Task: inverse folding
């Protein structure tokens, strides 16, 4: 039996992916084999020696201490794409909110509640204050064409928008498919900014993306451009965006990531981080996280780990040994210490970390595992 600890309320439909004959769900487990989490902060947590995996039911993992997990041989998983449709739909909503001043109009209409029979006349008189523009024929620049960005590109194209996309990691069949669907792929952000009436961000927080929306990039955009950020708060230089909103250079800003600075900006609509807040999204994320954890604990296969490489091998009977090590470890020495006959081997490398999955004809003894773990460069090892 494996014990799974949950740190947040995880969808029951997701947890149903875990076979009750093999997995025990215990919110208070002190020595779990795995943890499933949504948004709970884990940076101050002490991890027991029993912990082999953490699965984040969502894409972002900033609530998990990745470096420490790697040092302790803990695989960290996320669920890319599981909430993509929910975020895509909210982006479409944000584009319309930025275009038609719907929120402001609703707020104003509520002030007329005490006007009785005059409401109709007042509405007709005041509605011109909330006039906006249609999105048909407008150009949207999508930065990042991963799971969410690609869905947004398809959806806005169906609504009659022209789509310009930028993603330096995009290549091959996916790029060809997007281009076949009318997306113009550009090789530099300056070209995207110059062409776009709307700019929508779909990139992670990295050293070269933090503060990417700033005075310099805004200066390359059209006057009155509308910016949508449903990705990460630190993609925006708040002070420089605020100045552009005040001057009218940026016409409107919609974000799902409010903070004190954002809430003080003019012509800004801040949503309370609703991107993945749908029942369907929570179910999809939980189900994917549960499958990832179950596969890793039962077979050693790794899919969608953020700190360990992708390694998948068909089960061929006998036993398995999973080894997490630093790049350059002497694997022959490790196998010799294990004292087993290796029948097959699958290996992957990611950011200097090697994960090796050995197929062996027999279950490895504990003393062999202990001896192998003492070899320099070996971080973690387990018999499966």
Result:
């Amino acid at each position: 039996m494996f014990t799974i600890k949950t740190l947040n309320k995880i969808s029951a439909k997701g947890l149903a992916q875990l076979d009750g004959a093999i997995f025990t769900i215990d919110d208070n487990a002190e020595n779990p084999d795995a943890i499933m989490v949504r948004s709970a902060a884990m940076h101050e947590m002490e991890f027991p020696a029993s912990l082999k995996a953490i699965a984040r039911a969502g894409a972002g993992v900033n609530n998990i201490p990745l470096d420490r997990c790697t040092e302790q041989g803990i695989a960290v998983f996320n669920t890319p794409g599981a909430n993509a449709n929910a975020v895509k739909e909210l982006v479409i909503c944000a584009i319309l909110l930025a275009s038609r001043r719907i929120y402001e109009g609703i707020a104003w209409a509520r002030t007329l509640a005490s006007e009785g029979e005059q409401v109709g006349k007042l509405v007709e008189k005041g509605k011109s204050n909330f006039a906006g523009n249609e999105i048909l024929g407008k150009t949207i620049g999508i930065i990042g064409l991963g799971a969410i960005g690609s869905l947004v590109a398809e959806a806005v194209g169906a609504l009659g928008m022209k789509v310009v996309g930028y993603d330096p990691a995009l290549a091959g069949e996916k790029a060809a498919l997007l281009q076949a669907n009318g997306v113009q792929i550009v090789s530099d952000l300056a070209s995207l900014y110059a062409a776009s009436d709307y700019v929508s961000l779909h990139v992670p927080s990295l050293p070269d993306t933090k503060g990417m929306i700033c005075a310099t990039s805004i200066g390359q955009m059209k006057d009155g451009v509308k910016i949508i950020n449903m990705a990460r708060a630190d993609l925006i230089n708040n002070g420089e965006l605020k100045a552009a909103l005040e001057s009218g250079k940026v016409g409107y800003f919609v974000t799902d990531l409010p903070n004190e600075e954002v809430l003080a900006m003019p012509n800004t609509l801040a949503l309370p981080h609703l991107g993945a807040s749908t029942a369907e999204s929570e179910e999809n994320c939980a189900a994917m996280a549960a499958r990832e954890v179950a596969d890793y604990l039962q077979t050693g296969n790794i899919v969608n780990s953020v700190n360990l490489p992708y390694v998948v091998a068909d089960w061929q009977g006998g036993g398995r040994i999973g080894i997490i090590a630093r790049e350059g470890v002497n694997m022959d020495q490790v196998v010799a210490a294990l004292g087993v006959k290796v029948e097959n081997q699958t290996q992957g490398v990611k950011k200097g970390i090697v994960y090796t999955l050995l197929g062996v004809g027999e279950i490895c003894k504990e003393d062999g595992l202990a001896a192998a773990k003492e070899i320099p460069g070996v971080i973690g090892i387990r018999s499966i």
Notes: The first helix runs from residue 12 to 15. The chain has a mean pLDDT of 95. The longest strand covers residues 342-350. The CA atoms of residues 233 and 262 lie 9 Å apart.
